[in-house]
Amino acid sequence: MPIDPSAVIPPDTPLSKLPNFDPREVPVVGVDAHLPPVPTAHLRPDALRLRFAQPPAWEQELRSEPRFTDREPAQAAVLVPIVMRERPMVILTERTAHLTTHSGQVAFPGGKRDDTDVDPADTAQREAEEEIGLTRGTMEVIGDLPTYTTGTMFIVTPVIALVQPDYRLTLNPFEVADAFEVPLDFLMDPANHRRHAIEFSGTRREWFSMPYVDGSKERFIWGATAGMLRNFYRFLAA
Fold this sequence. Notes:
Elements: E1 28-31, H1 45-53, E2 74-83, E3 89-95, E4 106-107, E5 110-112, H2 120-132, E6 139-144, E7 148-149, E8 154-163, E9 176-183, H3 184-187, E10 194-200, E11 203-209, E12 212-214, E13 217-219, H4 223-237
Parallel strand pairs: 2-8
Antiparallel strand pairs: 1-10, 2-3, 2-5, 3-4, 3-9, 6-8, 7-8, 10-11, 12-13
């Protein structure tokens, strides 16, 4: 186990702040291979546009995490950038190690709403340009998903956008250590959705992960990012 389960730890401690915590080492308690993947045809740009234009009846699977802070709730948005390649890809980032929240984790570009932002799409696009240099002219926003509330009390709206394949990035080195692409069909296949669980101080924590091997490097997608992707799966599979 990555942490001592007998240790006395406040139940509201963020997972990433637990001593010696490594999410890769937490036991996998299930893999959802029994659920059908989203058909490849449904991941094409026109199909995605139609799904948001005519959304189905569906239920959001994940809404919030256990609260880890006394901070007042804050509105935020992330961009889910889908690159319109022959095989659609999703741009993800690796956050720098020194950040105070979600340091070193795989994440969507995004952040807290500014007072000047018009709506969640405006927040997501502004943050994507500030963090990775993805400009508004290279993307088409097609919709958003219900909010996901993190344990750090960010109420996050995932904004879905289609991105031209000739996009260029300029990473903000203070916030982003790396940016990379993951196939959308990989993320929308529950056979790649792992369930993790751990107990400590009488509290059970559960989350999803979607580890993706990029060449020789594993991109460990977990926590809030995996949770929002799981909701995206539910939306497309409904």
